[in-house]
UniProtKB/TrEMBL annotation:
It comes from [Eubacterium] siraeum DSM 15702. It comes from the Bacteria. This is N-acetyltransferase domain-containing protein. Signal peptide: none annotated. One of its GO terms (molecular function) is acyltransferase activity, transferring groups other than amino-acyl groups. It holds the Pfam family Acetyltransf_1. Residues 29-194 form the N-acetyltransferase domain.
Length: 194
């Protein structure tokens, strides 16, 4: 994994769109509760946010997959967050903004609030043309290694039982489940070295 730190706005928009298309193509979960074009736009905007926040990583110069993660102790930068919200309100329907905001509840933050620190994965995606080739496990090795070194858990939220199964196959376990207002479920996953 390498940190993404030298993309143009055009490249960010291109890869953000590909990330959104990968999420929208899954055909279930939260991605089905808003129009496809708004889901794609939301991920394009979030990709820019993660980049501007300094937490976006990619597999290689070929960009087979992407990861956004930080530590509980990381201070969130206000300017990129406000920019993200502003773009969503301007470029997406209000209904879709509400759906995206409602699905990004960060259940893991509530479940692990007593932990001194943790590695929080906010986005992990393998682009569609590279799926089924083992990239998901390779992507997750990066935050898992940091969690192991520090003796803390690595956590993330996901929205379908299929994704729960994929993360379980990568070494995570399901630690919480909550039904959202949309009727969809949010699952918290944890990786912790035994």
């Amino acid at each position: 994994m390498q940190k993404v730190n030298s993309m143009t706005k055009e490249e960010l928009a291109h890869y953000g769109t590909l990330i959104g298309e990968a999420f929208a193509a899954e055909g279930d979960g939260i991605a089905t509760t808003a129009p496809r074009e708004d889901i794609i736009k939301a991920f394009e905007i979030m990709t820019e946010y993660f980049y501007n926040s300094g937490v976006l990583y990619t597999t290689s110069d070929n960009h087979e997959g992407f990861l956004a993660y930080w530590r509980k102790s990381t201070k969130i930068k206000l300017k990129p967050a406000l920019h993200m919200v502003g773009r969503m309100l301007r470029e997406m329907s209000f209904r879709s903004v509400r759906i995206v905001a409602g699905s990004s509840e960060e259940l893991y933050a509530k479940v692990y609030k007593k932990e001194k620190d943790y590695v929080a994965v906010s986005m992990v995606v393998v682009l569609r043309e590279y799926q089924g080739k083992g990239y998901m496990k390779r992507i997750l090795e990066h935050p898992f290694s940091e969690a192991e070194r520090e003796g803390i858990p690595c956590v993330l939220d996901t929205d379908t039982e299929l994704k729960v199964a994929k993360y379980t196959k990568c070494g995570m376990k399901n630690t919480a489940k909550k039904q959202l207002k949309s009727g969809q479920y949010l699952y918290t996953m944890e990786y912790r070295e035994d």
